[in-house]
């Protein structure tokens, strides 16, 4: 019988997991197990390719709306396959290069296969099908194990079992052509971003979501404003969850049956959330406890319930965001290297952005959180159009909403409008480092007439207790 390969460290997953071993791990025997495309979600099918498409979509929309500024222009043609090939012509080599680098690295073994726990810190690896997989199943053990196995699209059973072809974010960016009519099921991040991309690049988009508004995890005012704007551009169906299996007609048309009636499209994109991959890991065999929603239970140091096993990112985090997965990977790296001085993850103030049109960015408490929890608050919504740069942009829909305690403590910020994902950064800094509204507004210069003046005005507009002004 072959001896079981034993490693100092075994990492499952090459998204943020692959970032852990750096030069400080030289001299350690490290194993990395990956069953899919090397580099994980963000690089291959997530943040990076989507934003490359979003940028192209933004350019197309800017051109289409240029005439309100007195610049007459039109989009002559969308070269979808050129966009696609530019995006993946850049990304695919990074994935291949990352894999080749690790495979050639001294002290590192890459197993291309699917890992499942067979016991404590013991993993059975089934080879990935195809030419790149390991040749034979292998069981490996590690002194320490890091589970960074991510999440995958959740597909409603009524669609999954229908036999009708559908896409997810994993494959929709690789289509050969832009669908003439695209039906998107869902109303969250992925639905909002792809609705913008496909509509700007040529599709007629219908969004069918289960809830009463789009982007319901946002502040209620932002969600309501976005839903209204979206309905002006796309066919938005609320409270429209699928009711029966979709059907495909002989001409290829896909008919989605929903609570709001039947929707015809040429392609179907399912964007109804992502589930942690813990269910495919035999976590119990490894001694790892799970939350009811499938996330691996971790403590503040990212330790699981199994000794010597850590978890990070989408497989364990309540935030399915790359900056969170990266932060957690950095904490795990530190704790592997410095077990006597462990660090804790700090997810007290996690910001996020939705790269749709208009962009949305958020940090901290929403107005409904304060109301529901009985937290005293004031808030101010300032329009981009109230400041000079907003006039220059002819912006009519952008807003910055700030939520604060009556004493000026900043509690949350919620933005919708051009560059919201960048504009939010000073508010992230202020909330993270405890800067109060008054100090932030009055004790620094705000460049005139730059767009951040909208933040300054929102801060100044907060109805704080008089002694705090
Ligand atoms: C379309 C889309 C757009 C996104 N855009 C953004 C964005 O703009 N900003 C942002 O912050 N976040 C974004 N995200 C979320 C972000 O991509 C994830 O939060 C992040 O990539 C999670 O990293 P991870 O390391 O936890 O998991 P992953 O990157 O998913 O890595 C997990 C890896 O483990 C492998 N694996 C899983 N199970 C096993 C197993 N049993 N054996 C072997 N290998 C296994 C998988 O193949 C995968 O490669 C987006 C996600 C999607 C889907
Ligand atoms: N810019 C970013 O940071 C970014 C971009 C994309 C994805 N992500 C991450 O990926 C996660 C997954 O994205 P997502 O958009 O799939 O999930 P989501 O949780 O953001 O949204 C899911 C949506 O699907 C709807 N839904 C659920 N079941 C349904 C059903 N049966 N029928 C109709 N609608 C249904 C929900 O009401 C909700 O609107 C996000 O939560 C986010 O953390 C982040």
TrEMBL record:
Its cofactor is FAD. Residues 8-329 form the FAD/NAD(P)-binding domain. GO terms for molecular function: nucleotide binding; oxidoreductase activity, acting on a sulfur group of donors, NAD(P) as acceptor. FAD binds at residues 51, 314. Keywords: Disulfide bond, FAD, Flavoprotein, NAD, NADP, Nucleotide-binding, Oxidoreductase, Redox-active center. The active site is at 448 (proton acceptor). Pfam families: Pyr_redox_2, Pyr_redox_dim. Binds 1 FAD per subunit. Disulfide bonds join 42-47. NAD(+) binds at residues 186-193, 273. Residues 350-458 form the Pyridine nucleotide-disulphide oxidoreductase dimerisation domain. It comes from the Bacteria. PANTHER family: GLUTATHIONE REDUCTASE (NADPH) (PTHR43014:SF5), MERCURIC REDUCTASE (PTHR43014). Belongs to the class-I pyridine nucleotide-disulfide oxidoreductase family. NCBIfam families: mycothione_red, PRK07846.1. This is Mycothione reductase. The lineage of its organism: Bacteria, Bacillati, Actinomycetota, Actinomycetes, Pseudonocardiales.
């Amino acid at each position: 019988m072959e001896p079981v390969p034993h490693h100092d460290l075994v990492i499952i997953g090459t998204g943020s997991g692959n970032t852990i071993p750096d030069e400080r791990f030289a001299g350690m025997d490290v194993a990395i197990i990956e069953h899919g495309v090397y580099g994980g979600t963000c690089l291959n099918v997530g943040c990076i390719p989507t934003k490359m498409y979003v940028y192209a979509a933004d350019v197309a929309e800017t051109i289409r709306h240029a005439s309100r500024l007195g610049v007459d222009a039109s989009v002559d043609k969308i070269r979808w396959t050129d966009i696609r090939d530019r995006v993946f012509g850049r990304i695919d080599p990074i994935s291949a290069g990352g894999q080749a680098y690790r495979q050639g690295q001294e002290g590192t073994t890459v197993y291309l296969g699917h890992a499942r726990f067979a016991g404590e810190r013991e993993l059975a690896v089934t080879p990935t099908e195809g030419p790149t997989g390991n040749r034979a199943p292998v069981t490996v053990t590690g002194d320490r194990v890091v589970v960074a196995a991510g999440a995958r699209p959740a597909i409603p059973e009524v669609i999954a079992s229908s036999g009708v072809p559908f896409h997810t974010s994993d494959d929709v960016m690789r289509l050969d052509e832009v669908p003439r009519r695209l039906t998107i099921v869902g109303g969250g991040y992925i639905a909002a971003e792809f609705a913008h991309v496909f509509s700007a690049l040529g599709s007629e988009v219908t969004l069918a979501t289960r809830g009463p508004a789009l982007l319901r995890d946002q502040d209620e005012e932002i969600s309501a404003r976005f839903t209204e704007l979206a309905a002006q551009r796309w066919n938005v169906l609320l409270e429209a969850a699928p009711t029966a299996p979709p059907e495909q007609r002989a001409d290829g048309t896909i008919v989605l049956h929903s609570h709001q009636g039947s929707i015809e499209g040429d392609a179907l994109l399912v964007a109804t959330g992502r589930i942690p991959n813990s269910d495919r890991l035999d976590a119990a065999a490894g001694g790892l406890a799970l939350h009811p929603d499938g996330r691996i239970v971790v403590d503040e140091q990212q330790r699981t319930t199994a000794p010597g096993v850590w978890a990070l990112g989408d497989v364990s985090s309540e935030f399915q965001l790359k900056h969170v997965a990266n932060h957690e990977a950095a904490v795990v790296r530190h704790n592997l290297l410095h077990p006597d001085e462990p660090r804790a993850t700090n997810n007290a103030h996690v910001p996020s952005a939705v790269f749709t049109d208009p962009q949305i960015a958020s940090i901290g408490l929403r107005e409904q959180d304060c109301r529901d929890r009985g937290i005293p608050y004031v808030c101010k919504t300032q329009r981009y159009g109230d400041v000079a740069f907003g006039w220059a942009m002819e912006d009519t829909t952008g807003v910055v909403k700030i939520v604060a305690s009556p004493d000026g403590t900043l509690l949350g910020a919620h933005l919708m409008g051009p560059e919201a994902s960048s504009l939010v950064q000073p508010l992230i800094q202020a909330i993270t480092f405890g800067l109060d509204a008054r100090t932030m507004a009055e004790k620094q210069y705000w460049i005139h007439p730059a767009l951040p003046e909208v933040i300054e005005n929102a801060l100044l507009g907060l109805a704080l207790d008089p002694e705090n002004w």
